[in-house]
Amino acid sequence: MKNITPREKKLIKKARVKELLEVYSSLLTDKERKILTLYTDPALSGAAIAKKLKVSRQAIHDHIRRGINKMERCETKSKLLEKRRRKMKIFLEIEGILSKKELSKEDLQTLNKLFEQLKDLD
User: Is the model's pTM score more than 0.70?
Assistant: First the structure.
């Protein structure tokens, strides 16, 4: 596995938070949602967010940690984000098959299997 720089690690974490926000933002307080939305901006640091909102860096850190923990706990229980990713993968496979000019018998069988997988995810 390739070595990941600290900057890349931070960007990956922010991308994960952005995905979590898409699914679980309604579980957060307004303040947590606002701070985490700002946090997902790659150009903003915790210090920059604190300055922008006129609060301490520690308060920003606490809200980020608390909000992420809340969303991660929900993801652990419900797996909505995981299901969403699996659905997207299936839709891409379906799209690939449907983009062909002609469908073979195997393509139709694969489509049926993919549709069954979608049903099972719900």
Answer: yes
Beta-carbon contacts of 115 under 8 Å, excluding residues fewer than 6 positions away, are 94
Whole-number Å distance between alpha carbons of 87 and 94: 10
pLDDT digits (tens, 9 = 90+) for 12-58: 999 999 999 999 999 999 999 999 999 999 899 999 999 999 999 99
In the chain, helix, strand, coil percent, each to 5? 80, 0, 20
Query: 3-state class of 55 per DSSP?
Result: coil
**Inter-residue contact 80 to 23 (CB < 8 Å):** yes
Classify 72 as helix, strand or coil. Answer: helix
Nearest-angstrom CA–CA distance, 118 and 95:
14
* pLDDT greater than 80 at residue 116: yes
DSSP letter, residue 103: -
